[in-house]
Amino acid sequence: MEDALLNELDNLFDGYLKEKKLRRTTERDAIFKLICSFSEHFDVNMLNERLEGDSFHVSKATLYATLELLTELGLIVRHLFPLPFAQYELRVFAETHLHRICLKCGAVSEDKGSKVLPTVNLAKLKMVRFTPAYSATYVYGICSKCTFCIKQAKAAEKAAETPPEQTLTTRKPRK
Asked: 49: Cβ–Cβ under 8 A, 6 or more apart, which residues?
């Protein structure tokens, strides 16, 4: 991540903590800096494992509380994909791509070069009793692995239904 963007996000986080009259702790700083190092989705367990790997222990309660603060501030986005844990990503990255979600296996992939990504100008979008903050695009379908498995299963099913070809037996001519 560029230094200018990192400084901007850091200033926003610092200002939000001051506004809420919360302290800027070493735990919050470590979590914030780690989150800024991710360019992909992450979850609470990934954060915890990475921090523990760096010999920096943070309780799950602190992780969840910090994620909630960053979500309220709008620096990160919480995705509720059909996965065991909520996935997060930096908001600056969330708006630049669409998410493909498989209806069979729940796999989530990103399409960063899509030409179909809708461009919504939220500043010009007027909605009654609603102020939009950001947008994310989700496309649901069947991934290539599941499509392959479905085709294989259908082919196997069809093969099981088809009776084996009867071989012609040749008779000996009568004398």
From this structure: none
